[in-house]
Design a protein that fits this description.
Length: 891
Amino acid sequence: MDVVIVESPAKAKTINKYLGKGFKVLASYGHVRDLPSKDGSVLPDDDFRMAWDVDPKSQKRLNDIAAAVKGADKLILATDPDREGEAISWHVLEVLNKKKALQGIDVQRVVFNAITKNSVLEAMKHPRALDKELIDAYLARRALDYLVGFTLSPVLWRKLPGARSAGRVQSVALRLICDRELEIDAFRSQEYWTIETDFKTASGAPFTARIVNLDGKKLEKFDIPNKATADEIVARIKASRFSVKSVESKPARRNPYPPFTTSTLQQEASRKLGFSASRTMQIAQRLYEGVEIDGETTGLITYMRTDGVQIADEAIAAARTVINNEFGEAYVPSAPRVYKTKAKNAQEAHEAIRPTDLARLPKHVSAVLDDDQRRLYELVWNRTVASQMESVQLERTTIEIEADEQQIGLRATGSVITFDGFLRLYQEGRDDPEDGEEGGRLPKVSRGDKLGLGDVRANQHFTEPPPRFTEATLVKRMEELGIGRPSTYASTLQTLRDRGYVQMDKGRFVPDDKGRLVTAFLENFFTRYVEYDFTADLEEKLDKVSAGELDWKQVLRDFWKDFTGAVGEAMELRITEVLDRLNEVLGPHVFPDKGDGSDPRKCPNCDDGKLSLKVGKFGAFVGCSNYPDCRYTRQLTAGAEGEEAVSGERTLGVDPETGKPVLIKSGRFGPYIQLGEAEDGEKPKRAGIPRGTSAATLTLERALELLSLPREVGIHPETRQPITAGLGRFGPFILHEGVYANLKDPEEVFTIGVNRAVDLLAEKALKAKARAGKTLRDLGAHPEDGKPVQIMEGKYGPYVKHGSTNATLPKDTDIESYSLEEAVALVAEKSGKAPKKKKAAASKAEKPAKKAAAKKPAAKKASTAKKPAAKKPAAKKAAPKAKARATELAD
């Protein structure tokens, strides 16, 4: 028997069906080893030796694999066809070699780009050895990310308390966001005017032209700076007569876009579907692993981590057939379109993301997909088919117009699609409009034709700041600069959100104060390591490692030598030096000009105090230089309208019902509302301040409304149980019998009615049911609580469901003969309420002597070691903090 290793159990189940008897397919469940989250996992002084740990969950799976391999004829490593897939195979092989489980067993590596029967069987015919260069590239990246995280992050903790972590790619992505915000802060709007004129031909056909020349000079964007200048030009136009100077019409073509790569799929899914990069990859993973069609699990798209834009010849042929059948022969180009990847590293430039079978139209599979899966599959299908369609044909016309008596020139442009080509199926979502698409068809005119003058309009405009990055535009920018790899963009952007370095506002990245501080610190004290060119150059070196052109350890040596020097210099800095530099760099942001000529850093509480950045246990804040005499503090930035964002205690008024003061206080996570002070050891009632509400402008009435939450919305008509509304850590919500449903607007907490709440809860239940899969059997009611016990279809096989408890059925269980009693026992064991506890209690009761004997020495030990025992709790208390902090380091 041959043993085949893949990543996921879903893939294992499908591939086992394809290969049939003679093969045993097992899942590694992703990576089986990783670098421990502690210092010393990579040792630069020992030639970058890396200490790998096996995850406890993976240990059992590796034992199963080792047991299966014993006596096998062959081990086939069939993990994903990229660097990470190669690394997983290498890790599995390393562990099996240490267990001495591979003696005399042939080891092969196979890769397939799609989970279809043909792709898998064809791949099995072409095995190869593990790719050493790809593994080296993985080791180099993993070591670099670890070394940067575990070396740089402690510097941040000591010199900038409150900062969470730094990373090789993460920090540069954050700099992009912060730099864009600096551009927006520094932007000053500039006024400019444009002038449009309506004309009519001799036949009465209207069209519009714009002024482009005046007095023999070509007009630039800001050459008409104000209304006075614009009015003067309008008067000159109205006093003139015009004729056609020239007419130029020429055909143009627009070619379709290439099929999706990882990056372009993330960008387009963000623009068209509103998906985050991580959401796009999650859905694409499901489409790749496949769905059940006609009783067989079939992958719907090819592998979704790729830099390549080329697709297989058979896919091109299939696309041309589909185009002919669905749109007609006119939409099939004379020759197939061939796209070439721009990726520098051909080893990682696999086939583009495409449907595994282009004849499988979106409408054919919509019934077996959820809504998000259907939309993403349709996007991939449309893009792939459109990439092989005929070009769009256009006619672009330019009419140059001149005044008969004055030097005034105007221009009219028009663009007309004469054949829609690939636009019949697909139009790319764009952040910028296509060039030359403005205007429609222009009337037929000839040189020298006299034109009738119509309305003349002067239009005022103001320049706008550069837009903040969306996920799509940030991914595009990172790819343009060569920062990171497309397959890691989703996790990098999610890390920035998880660390609290950025927030999302209307789908765009806004740097948090914490993110700005970290970026300013790194730019000033680790300049080289957040430079775009340096990061891109390092990526290029890593690509050369995977191409076999560079030694991976030499890349690490070159990096580490300079990096440790920079870290050593930073560790010598005093915190006051760091804060002085940040005060200077972030001054316009933290201490904005008030516009009245006063010193923006003057303390509002005392006469001679000066505001400055300070660092405390929970991060940076602004405080007075006269501390402790003056205890004025505030958060880093002013409020929404320029008012001070107060972080000190403030009394809003008195609650008329209780007579207690309503206070605004500052906590670890910002300001909050509190009713009175603690009495008799009981905590006072508190309420958070919703996002978008300024603490500085909060009124007593609003504070009392927030303190009144949670609010009872009403009684559910079916269950007769109350529905409540409130504000939580993740925003506004409604709650009914332990089920939460999110609300979009915090105001809804105070206004939502029963009908709307019931609808939201029903929608939540439907979505949960859709995720849970279909019911295979209803076994009946549980004998204790009467709740239904069901056998459900799951991603990894059938399972028993009772309330919130899910228990996986043993392999080879006959679902049709499985009884309610067996299910109840399985659920009880899973939930920890099985007779096991009673049995354990009984066994303890049978051995009272041993139990008593065990207690006596323990008591004696405690009495003789009081001092050491007193020290232990402090050590235990510190350990979780160190462990939690350590887990944040990896980028």
